[in-house]
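Researcher: We're reviewing a set of sequences before deciding which ones to prioritize for further study. For each one, I'd like a predicted 3D structure that I can look through quickly. This is Right-handed parallel beta-helix repeat-containing protein. If possible, include the structure in token form so it fits the rest of the review sheet.
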Amino acid sequence: MRVRRRLASLALVVTAFLTVTAGCAATPAPETPTALDFVQVPGDAETLAEASELVAEGGTIEIGAGVWTEQLLVSTPDVTVRGADRNATIIDGEGLRPYGVVGIADGVRIENLTVTGATFYGVLVTGLHDEAGPAAHGAGAYEPFDPDAFPPLQRFAIQGVTAHNNGLYGIYAFNAQHGVISDSYASGSADSGFYVGQCETCNILVEGNVAERNAVGFENANASGLTVVGNRFSDNRVGMTFLSNYVEAFSPQRDNEVAGNLVSDNVSADSPSQADGGFGIGIGVSGGVDDLFINNRVTGNPRAGVLISNTEDLATIGLTLQLTQFANNGVDVANVSAERAPATGTCIDEAFTALPAALLEAATACSEGEDPAATTADLPQVEAPQGVSFLKVAAPVDQPQFSSAAGMLPDEIVMPDITTYPVPSADLFADRIGTR
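Model: Here's the predicted structure for Right-handed parallel beta-helix repeat-containing protein, in token form for your review sheet.
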């Protein structure tokens, strides 16, 4: 009887084991979600991160109206990220998260939404990233990088995006080529509203944008081959800067074309402080080579309309200003380059006030020699107001909706003829400026 009981018990154990293992064998492995060409948030995905994982190559993520307190990393090629409503689709970093939207894959398009409250950058496209995520100037990647290890991102578009109250940069292209930044708006950036940096033969078009109440409206650092046309960079601390430096790769920047821009009244008190103390300057060129400015309106900048300088031993060479409309600047054009890196070959074809006065004769003669120089102490002295926290700069008025341009992004941007951009009126994009 004892043996029978043991055999019965063993039979029960074996039966239970077989039942369990049979149940386990019958349970199917989790299926990988099918990638979708069109992902709606909410709906197909409840979060931006889920949408990024779900979207197929060449697909679209449409983000509905609402405040999305997260961030979005796009690592799938040829994806479009689009807001259902530019002013009501808001990605909010809450002053806690480093970025709003980052594209690290070729062919990314970001449009018709608002990004705010990021501690580093509202929107970034970059080829500089690794398993730890994206990196760019301002987020730990200050050392020059190996271009072979980090090839530039190819083909991008940032269009109809509002970026306000972001810690460093509003809209940022870094180590990227063949792209467009257009019809967008930036304010409240503690570094610059729009920034293009570290690219050679960039083939990037910056057109139809508005920057106000930033430390700098638009900044170029070691980026060559840009076309910057028809923008409004007014009511910042500094309107535009074109810089070369040794901190980043690809110095010096060169061969940029800048036409039809309004650069005015850069005396904003409702803005973060500019890191180098800049204030009241329209356009700064430091260490640039063969940059061309034509048909720009540069007015109301109390320190200088155009300020020429050097970065260490990187000199400004071959700067050309054509048909610029100067008015009401502290001085229209000033050269404060140091003796170790004197500016040479500045060429200006219109009437302007100059510092030093001898610069007027040399520049209108397009002399190939060293340009006469003054010092920063000789500039009109303007006291910069105390800066405002990037989170406390007044929010902008609603911006116009952006209609998507369908189709794949081109391998190369066909640049417009810059001579077709006239000197803009003083009220360019006046309907897009101001605060709520």
